[in-house]
Amino acid sequence: MSAWYGVAGCRCMLLLLAVACTLPSGIESIPSRRQCFIAREELSNLIDLLNNMDEPYVDSEPEDFDTLEDPDTPSCSSKLERIRVSVKELHKNYHALKQIRQDDPISNYRISKYRYETKLKNLNQTLFEFVPQVSNQDLTALNQLRRKVKEVEIKLAKSVNNLQKQREQTAVALSETVIQKIRTNSRDAAITEFKYLALRSDDPYRIIVPKVYRGTDDDARKMIDFLEKVDFNDRPIGGYEVLVDRMITDDKLRGENAVRILKGIQAIIMARVGQQHERAVALLKRFRMNAH
What we know:
Elements: H1 2-22, H2 26-29, H3 40-51, H4 77-98, H5 106-130, H6 139-183, H7 187-198, H8 205-212, H9 217-229, H10 237-249, H11 255-271, H12 274-290
Helix pairs in contact: 3-4, 3-6, 4-5, 5-6, 6-7, 6-8, 8-10, 9-10, 9-11, 10-12, 11-12
């Protein structure tokens, strides 16, 4: 009996060995990842492009770099070209943003700034995706490029912030005429000047209202007179929001002025003009909680 078990055991071992020989090895079953190499000339070219961000943008033909001679060593050229295109697009959109004049419509500035920020985001994303594709020996070179991009990003951010501050200063200067017209009850003239300001400021009411309304009922009346004449397209809800909040703080949300404000808010709700409708509904709730 024991002899039979011995023979059976040997047969099982032989069968297992035969099956094992027909299976591929674990190493061969997992394809190796091919990693590319960065040519120094290409890296240098990208660094130069980043260093020239403050220079006027000039559209140029794609660079032609020599490929590596070893066919078994994949080059990063195609991937680096994507980065190069991203850098050029960032350069182009940055200079387009800088070309927006202080008296140009705020919508032009918003669009240009959005495009610039999108290109910057795309460049960083492209670099991030590139990391696992680069050979270990070239990671240092890639990190050098990433540090340079971060350095340029910080520098450009300061420049963009300065552009924003300049626009805000221009808006404040333009608002002075509007404020003066409102104070002197020159409503039609104030509306004319305000339309010019509204095109150039993100939130003109936060500049105007605090300087017109200084805590008295007469100041509130003048501000309401003005807001009642503002076109719906110029987002009067912004003015009512600032005025109501300040009148709540001063405990002035009452009487005839409060009634007129209520009618103004209700008119905006009835008009159903874009986001103003939602803001007016929210303001109405706040108004009802504080008016007396």
